[in-house]
Write a structure and sequence with these properties.
The protein is mostly helical and 68 residues long. 90% of the residues lie in helices and 0% in strands.
Length: 68
């Protein structure tokens, strides 16, 4: 019975660790997305047209967010 209890605890620990890692990844992604959006806002105020590679980055971010 102790072994089963230990296995259950270990499984719960692994699930918790997995959940924590997902939360960290989500926070990092959110911070990255916010930085890209801020860059887009700043760039649109200071230039006449966005650079093609920036436009591609903004488009890809929107695609990724739509997938999530």
């Amino acid at each position: 019975m102790t072994r089963n209890g230990t296995e259950t605890t270990q499984h719960a620990d692994r699930r918790l660790i997995g959940a924590i890692h997902r939360q960290i990844a989500e926070r990092r992604f959110s911070a990255l997305a916010a930085a890209v959006r801020e860059h887009e806002a700043r760039a649109s105020r200071h230039t006449i047209g966005a650079r093609p590679h920036d436009v591609a980055l903004y488009r890809r971010l929107r695609q990724i967010i739509a997938e999530v």
